[in-house]
């Protein structure tokens, strides 16, 4: 059976995705800085690697067929952590994955990462980091899926999404639970080509929207 490494498995989306994969009896390696944050998870399909993403975490990739990068520096940190986690750790993850023969790399990116100059806000350093990490993955030689969610919310999963950006910017949002369920769908299905798409709450079942 395949094994998926989830980088950032104690974060909000990362932990939701971890729980969903485990419920579907998927082998998961959870990479976290503090394993106590996963103390409530108990599954024979789970192994935990405690490692700081600012260091060398290449050993965590060993034996994994698939990687989900769901780590993030968080909104309360400075630009330095944005560079070290959202850019540098993400690029290292792709490099390690290529070296270890990973078959599929799933990147949780962000709306606006395609063109950071189009966004005039304090988020620009974050979007630049996401853009550069995405570009590194695109040129890595890995098979990849890049998911660019809209503004994240804490609403319950509707399990209905769209990959079409709404005309009304206030509707360009998605619940973290919907993102996690989309990651489950991507991680447990085979796709024939590399893909980059935005993701928002919508009116189509995830299976139909994320083809």
Notes on the structure:
The chain is an alpha/beta fold and 211 residues long. The chain has a single domain (3-209), classed as NAD(P)-binding Rossmann-like Domain (Rossmann fold), CATH 3.40.50. Helix content is 30%, strand content 23%. It is built from five helices and eleven strands. It has helices spanning 12-23, 79-99, 124-138, 176-187, 206-209; strands spanning 3-7, 27-32, 46-50, 66-69, 104-108, 144-149, 151-153, 160-162, 173-175, 195-201, 204-205. The strands form two sheets. The chain has a nine-stranded mixed β-sheet with strand order 3-2-1-4-5-6-10-8-11, sandwiched between helices. Helix 1 (12-23) links the parallel strand 1 and strand 2. The longest helix has 21 residues, at 79-99. The radius of gyration is 16 Å and the shape is globular. 45% of the residues are buried. The mean pLDDT is 95.
Question: Topology of this structure?
Answer:
Blueprint (H helix, E strand, L loop, with lengths): L2 E5 L4 H12 L3 E6 L13 E5 L15 E4 L9 H21 L4 E5 L15 H15 L5 E6 L1 E3 L6 E3 L10 E3 H12 L7 E7 L2 E2 H4 L2
Parallel strand pairs: 1-2, 1-4, 2-3, 4-5, 5-6, 6-10, 7-9
Antiparallel strand pairs: 8-10, 8-11
Helix pairs in contact: 1-4, 2-3
Helix content class: 25-40%
Q: How many helical elements?
A: 5
Structural class determined from secondary elements:
alpha/beta
Biggest beta sheet summary: 9 strands, mixed
Subunit organisation of the chains: single chain
% residues in beta strands? 15-25%
Number of domains: 1
- Distance N to C terminus: 23 Å
CATH superfamily: NAD(P)-binding Rossmann-like Domain
At CATH level 2, the architecture is: 3-Layer(aba) Sandwich
Average pLDDT: 95
Give the strand order of the largest sheet, numbering strands 1, 2, ... along the chain.
Answer: 3-2-1-4-5-6-10-8-11
| Envelope shape | globular
CATH topology: Rossmann fold
């Amino acid at each position: 059976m395949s094994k998926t490494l989830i980088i950032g498995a104690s974060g909000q989306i990362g932990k939701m995705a971890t729980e969903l994969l485990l419920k579907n009896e998927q082998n998961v390696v959870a990479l976290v800085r503090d394993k106590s944050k996963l103390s409530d998870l108990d599954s024979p399909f789970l192994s935990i690697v405690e490692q700081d993403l600012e260091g060398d975490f290449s050993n965590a990739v060993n034996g994994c067929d698939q990687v989900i990068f769901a780590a993030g520096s968080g909104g309360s940190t400075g630009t330095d952590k944005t560079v070290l986690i959202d850019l540098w750790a993400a690029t290292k993850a792709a490099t390690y994955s290529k070296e270890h023969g990973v078959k599929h790399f799933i990147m949780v990116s962000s709306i606006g990462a395609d063109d950071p100059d189009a966004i005039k806000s304090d988020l620009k350093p974050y979007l630049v980091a996401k853009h550069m990490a995405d570009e590194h993955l695109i040129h890595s030689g890995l098979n990849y899926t890049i998911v660019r969610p809209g503004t994240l919310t804490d609403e319950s999963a509707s399990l209905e999404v769209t990959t079409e950006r709404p005309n009304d910017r206030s509707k360009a949002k998605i619940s973290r639970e919907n993102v996690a369920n989309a990651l489950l769908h991507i991680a447990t299905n085979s796709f024939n080509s590399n893909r980059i798409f935005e993701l928002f709450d919508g009116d189509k079942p995830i299976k139909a929207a994320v083809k």
